[in-house]
Amino acid sequence: AIVERYWTAHIGLVTEDDIKMCSTEEKALIDLLIDTGGTRLGTVDRNVALSLYSRGLIYLLVPVNDDDLISVPPLENFVMNRVIGDYFETLLYKIFVSI
Asked: pTM here?
């Protein structure tokens, strides 16, 4: 997976059963995220963070500043069906309208 050091990791929904399945390193990262409210990925073990991310125990935020430039390449053969309940299509529509 492509993740950058400046992305931030935040605690997701973690249950007691999830904690029982975690390694010592994963538990330490979960504790850190609970205590700090989030941390940059460059300051923690990447493999531990990706392991927790793949199980949905943490989520990642990509910081975007007001002066950042975002480029969306043309989508070939994209058709907007506007299917109700399709969250990904709704997100794409909002992005295209705002550009």
From this structure: 0.70
